[in-house]
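= Tokenised fold =
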Amino acid sequence: MKTISQDTLSLWQKEGINLIPKNFAVFRSLVSQTKTLVKRHKYEEAAVCAEMAAWFACGQPCGLFVSMELEQVLLEIGKQAISYNNYLTKDAAISKSSRPKNVVHVCTSVMSIGGLSKMLWRWIQQDIDSSHSIVLTKQESNEIPQILKDSVSQSHGKIYILNKEGNGILSKAKKLREIVATADVVVLHVYSQDVIPMIAFANKEQSPPVIFLDHADHLFWLGASISDVVANLRESGMRLSQERRGIETERSILLPTIVEPTYREFSPIEAKRKLGIEENTIVLLSIARSVKYSRLVDGLSFADAHLPILNKYKNVCLLVVGVNNPEGWSAAIEQTQGRIKAIAETDHTSTYYQAADIYVDSFPFVSITSLLEAGSYGIPLVSRYPYFSGASAILGADMPGLTGNLIRVRSLEEYINTLSSLIEDEELRISLGESTRNKIAQTHWANNWQTALEKVYLLATTLPRINTQLVSNEKDQICLGEPDIFLPSVYGWYSDFTLAIQPYLKFLPFNQRLFYWYKLVKKHGVRNRISLLLPNWFYSLYQSWKINFKF
């Protein structure tokens, strides 16, 4: 039986050591281009180039978790390109005896699935003593979930969509500054590469306190130099922020993910019946976004990894919710006579959780929100952590409410043995599930979570604002140790830079747009790419009119 071996980890290590310097060279080139554009006072183009650099560092790990060089350039863009004279200036800190009443959440995009959006609307629903508004910098075509609209409306807030008018980055940053001018606190839930908040809050003296929600703690991100407080969702993320992003200890605080209290509508047997599963079947469940199941490990898909357990126990099935296109799973599904079921992404997951007997985490890309939701139903949790040392803790599953209850295993062999023990011992499943539920309730459920939120608010409103003048002048230095060396194999999601920068071409000046467009077409052909030559204002019209160019 195959396991994820030391040989595989060594291969990932070698690949990381080989790829990171190459990726860093591309990143450095983009940062250099950004600096050149700033010197020429071409701030809009510089902002686009900066976001391309950050986007590249997110998708192709460069041995960095933060770039103070890039952040300095963005701060300069914000200070040079945006006039702050007309903005209202809040007091440097709210009275220590009060709490923020007007909270503005800045998000790149929201959707109905995924932990980030769920965290947002649960935050708003729980914090009823504040008014909550949302600013969306790049919502694009995603529909805003109705539950989020209702939550904002009930808090007497508003939703602002900055990209509706198809304006550039600088105009969006200016609009963001206008919207938050009277806010007590700003919370950033933004994607790692979003440059708009960096530019908007470059002048900290006239900015509200900024809280950065570190939801992508395993990736490179922008915002360290403008964030008065970094709210970390887990201990490993907090350690990494302090050690690798330079976040001061006094500005770093733990804010667990908020999870809705769960109460069963159905017994496990009733839930299984609703899903068409026989009541004596042991259900293994996993729920995550499709990308988290796309990696092969030792040549095995997520489905293949469960064949030994499914072949051993004929009364066991595996439900995987979130697999939109289970390419390569057909042989495993056929071999188990359909006892592996791949279900498309959905935000209606309650019945699946209630039917489950054991929850198995996605691998090698973990899904912590799903672990918390499963544990809240009293389901035992199993996750894999094969890495060399605790230095790679950020790549594993950890949360305050999981400590002491989540079962973490090192190898596939240990994984199969652990699942066998849980399958064969119903009392163990029940007792472990109940202790997991209790720990999560104490830490992540609404009223207990509110206590942690109040500490975050207090810290944000009483600390002196972070001083952007003290941002390090040192050049970026890459790391070729853990966890960086494993990131390209675990999280790197594209390998072709010309494809990766497609979303940014329409914002570039024509000569640069033509240069990158030519490289893209030369390598991948012209089909459906002529629209990338259009400027942003015309591209927006092109999208809305649904013009179909054929070549």
Observations:
- The first strand starts at residue 102 and ends at 107.
- Confidence is low (pLDDT under 50) at residues 91-97, 546-551.
- The first helix runs from residue 6 to 39.
- Residues 34 and 46 are 5 Å apart (CA to CA).
